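Workshop exercise sheet. Pairs work together: one partner reads the sequence aloud, the other fills in the structure field after running the prediction. Swap roles for the next sheet.
Pair: D.N. / O.F.
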Amino acid sequence: MTEPAALNQRLRVLVGRLRRRLQDESSVQDLSAPQASALARLLLLDEPSTASQLAGAERVKPQSMAKTLTALHEQGLIRRAADPSDGRRQLITLTDDGRAAAQGARATRIEWLTDALSQRLSEPERQVIAEALTLLERVVEE
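Structure field:
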């Protein structure tokens, strides 16, 4: 099936499944998928962020992010501080333990996908993946 609508559907389903699988593979400590994702986002940003910025970046409701951040704070993985420019807002940063957890989760995801590509696909199949990625990059860039 090469119809654009069919390709769209398959690609969206596959990307969603891959994302969920990577989240499952990267579970660190007793973190839920949203908690691990929030830590990863803070690691990626590498600067203080507000709860509303994180909620927007993770595409979740502010209330859901607040619950996630409360759990991370209780586990000592994030630090909250008043925003110097607006005392009503709090800036969220990773603690050393939070940074280690996020880096561990990232390393686990990288290792799982690398191993899966290596063990489950032949060299010619990996070449097909590389070519498909090049095409998908072109779709995104246009």
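Discussion prompt: The mean pLDDT is 91. What would you look at next?
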